Amino acid sequence: MVVVPTRELCLQVTDDLATAAKYLTAEETRRLSVVSIYGGRAYEPQVEALRAGADVVVGTPGRLLDLSQQGHLQLGGLSVLVLDEADEMLDLGFLPDIERILRQIPAERQSMLFSATMPDPIITLARTFMVQPTHIRAEAPHSLAVHDTTEQFVYRAHALDKVELVSRILQARDRGATMIFTRTKRTAQKVADELKERGFAVGAVHGDLGQIAREKALKAFRGGDVNVLVATDVAARGIDIDDVTHVINYQCPEDEKMYVHRIGRTGRAGRTGVAVTLVDWDELDRWTTIDTALGLGSPTPPKPTPTHRTCTPSCPSRPRPPRPSVPTRVAAQAPCHGSGGPAIGNRSLRREASTAHPRRQTGHRASRPRPRE
């Protein structure tokens, strides 16, 4: 049995296992069966699949416990248990459910726990329910912070300017599939709606959407029907999509681990990628912490300058429209790494007049002094 934190990851793992088991047999000539169990869908089809017989069950903690308590899922005969994305299950509050599952399965079993990080509760879980576990580190401790094939850029941008800035990035030459990350469900839907109004093919994945809508959006993104996917961190956890050329952090990540996880969606398998982080004024402290932890070399994006341009040679800017003769400030800042960057255009995204508006005069207007005779 494989336990995963999210529905999307459940479906992805099920598909991967079904592909791997395509030419495997369980008993005599019977093909190996893989069944997915997760919330947001009706119980009946999942119960019928279990009754038909399942060699591998992939599921989320809540639905697995529900079916176990109803007697549809028998955990007493389990021989192998896999806990995937254990740190994410901890963050989502699934640790008590995991402990309940572990108490129902046989003591003699093979257990495997996969986690990007190893916080103390996960270490305690491993020591409590695993016998002399072997700790295998897949990568060096600091290798996650190094993305040699991904160009990383940071821009200071006001919240009101971010959609315009993202629109210009999406017009970059040679841009392929793009993932946009937000911290909240409301922001994810808002960004998706505004980009759709601007003519982009956009899908959204977040917790406020029904399971069918989320699956439809992911299928469209994988199939190329839409080339922009706006997602929250939780909904996108564990989703593996090939050929992502750009990652945009619409909102600054919570910490350096989430930053690494986000930008790791591009620049895979020897391909190059671009990661852009938009930092609002109230996110500067968070970004400084991330930059310091990862050693990115840009703790604070440069201050705005009236003559700053962020257009790359490969992405020519549009003609500059006429402007009022007032000083301007640019919300988007210079990239923190590399000499190039995504196409952001040549137009300032925010204008701030340096001179105050003249006060409205009240009372009688002063008369012009008469020349002396």
UniProtKB/TrEMBL annotation:
What SMART domains would the database entry show? DEXDc, HELICc
Q: What is its EC number?
A: 3.6.4.13
Enumerate composition-biased segments (Basic residues).
357-373
Which residue windows does the record flag with biased composition (Pro residues)? 316-325
MF (Gene Ontology): ATP binding; hydrolase activity; RNA helicase activity; RNA strand annealing activity
Listed under GO biological process in this entry are: response to cold
**What residue intervals traverse the membrane?**
none
Q: Does the keyword ATP-binding apply?
A: yes
Q: Region Disordered: which residues?
A: 292-373
Q: Where is the Helicase C-terminal domain?
A: 164-308
Q: Which InterPro entries match?
A: DEAD/DEAH_box_helicase_dom, DEAD/DEAH_RhlB, DEAD_box_RNA_helicases, Helicase_ATP-bd, Helicase_C-like, P-loop_NTPase, RNA-helicase_DEAD-box_CS
Key words of the record:
ATP-binding, Helicase, Hydrolase, Nucleotide-binding
Question: Keyword rRNA-binding on this protein?
Answer: no
Residue span, Helicase ATP-binding domain = 1-136
Q: What top-level branch of life does the organism fall under? A: Bacteria
- What enzyme category does the UniProt record give? hydrolase
What cellular-component terms does GO give this entry?
cytosol; ribosome
Give the family, as the similarity comment puts it: Belongs to the DEAD box helicase family.
Name of the molecule in the record: RNA helicase
